[in-house]
Amino acid sequence: MSQSVHVRPFRDLLDSGGVVEDPERIATYTMDQRQLFTGSTFAVLKPATTQQVADIVRLAAHYGIGIVPQGGNTSYCGGATPDASGRQVIVSLERMDRIREIDPVSMSISVDAGAILKNVQDAAAAAGLLLPLSLGAEASCRIGGNIGTNAGGLSVVRYGMTRDLLLGIEAVLADGTVVSDMRKLRKNNTGYDVKQCFVGSEGTLGIVTGAVLRLAPLPTRRATAWLKLAKDAPIAELLTLIHRESAYLLTTFEFMTSRSITLATEAITDPPSLGAGPGGAVLVEFASSSRHLDLDELMEAVLAEAIETGCVDDALLAQSGSQRTAMWRLRETIPEGEKRRNGSVKHDISVPLSSIQRFLDLAGSQVRSYDADLELSVYGHVGDGNLHYNVLVPRDVDRLEFTKRIESSLSLQLYDTAAALGGTFSAEHGVGRFKKHLLARYSDPGRIAAMRRIKTAFDPADIMNAGAIVCPMGGKSAS
Ligand code: FAD
Ligand code: MLT
Ligand code: ZN
Question: Which parts of the sequence belong to the FAD-binding PCMH-type domain (predicted)?
Fold first, then answer.
């Protein structure tokens, strides 16, 4: 079928704003966020309603055209970009961005899946509530993408991942069936929890068109501190102490090595001089909506205890909103700092908290014996056992070629180490197309078989994001 024949049925279905055919405009959708891969498509479809999504899916299934759902295209694993065949169409949810309803009493928000995360946070805040999902890409990622990747981020230690925030869903299955379960119930034990199938499914089971998300009371008080760690500080023990003493008010425990802090500092025009200790630094935050608690007092007491243990050399408690913002800015600018330098090979690993120090020690030796000149940028959501153990691309080398070399050698050693410690090669970024081979390498065969059966039940013809995660039973490849 020629390209124009592919697109014709969709043109009849959507208004002119709903079909993008101009190659220049298409190009912004076919390249992944890290510019490691460019796929090909004949069109980007932008439905405005759930009914249009269902009609698109039915037509695509009829013509045997594959579909790649896309939100903000900020994912790190190439899951939102089509393959090179030109036979997959991108379905972008960007025109479906409404806030449908906020229920302050039930503490829930119902949204279109194309709503930008930041806009949903803002809408919740305007009603005096918090959407407790926060990540560096929040100004451009969309709720459907957050569900597709089961996004984590900066407050998981308190509120959990996207999975933990999802109360209800609306989604279109691979044959056009609409699953409509936009309830805001906390309890609903009526059979399989179908909505959870879509979480982390990266567009392979259907297109999410709406979601109901759990909200929390909006914190009115925060205590934010920057801790400089002593040499060889046992990070997991520090976390245990802070967690225990924070009375469940700990919302953030973000670890950063001094190299990562320097990268962020170099990317900021007027950077704060916070620095790190020999063991790195940790950004800690407590938050509460209660007017009856003095969080600064609590934080000061906890920090004093932490300093007494010898884990922490020095700690700075933010004295103003601008000091707090400066601390956060430094943490959140690390990915940009890596990018400006020439990028990084990202390793989004997680291990049980009890093994985090062991991972750092073993991985450090592996990197040194692989190439003593390699530079690392190590930081992450240690409160969740999640490290971004990134290898910096040297300034003068080809980024793509270097990434391929590291990913086929050193990365596997690092993932082997994480796996041997009971960990995983992808804590929060997903599998997509880039990490599919790792799923085959590290997952229990029974688990992969179960995943393929789920995929087969939802999408036997492999219409939905073929090439990501797993293929159905009887499909082209083993995984
Ligand atoms: P996309 O990239 O568009 O899509 C992601 C996947 O979901 C794809 O497989 C796609 O097919 C599928 N999908 C998209 N929309 C739908 C839908 N409506 N229905 C079904 N499937 C769909 N991630 C974290 O977890 N934690 C972080 O701290 C974090 N920080 C980041 C910081 C930066 C600077 C950047 C650039 C990225 C970061 N990410 C982080 C990764 C990324 O932002 C998340 O994975 C995010 O959830 C992706 O959302 P998106 O809308 O961009 O999805
Ligand atoms: C983060 O935590 O900042 C991201 O998940 C990691 C990254 O952007 O590399
Ligand atoms: Zn992260």
Answer: 37-218
